[in-house]
Amino acid sequence: MGQSEFDEPRLAINRVYTRQGDEGQTSLAGGQRVPKDGPRIAAYGEVDELNAFVGVARCSLEEAGGQRPELAPLSAILLRVQHELFNLGSILATLPPDVYPKQARITTADVDRLEAEMDKFNAGLPELRSFVLPGGCRVNADLHVCRTVCRRAERACVGLARVESVPPEVIQYLNRLGDALFVWSRWASRAAGASEVLWEPNQPALGWGGR
Question: pTM of the prediction?
Answer without folding.
Answer: 0.87
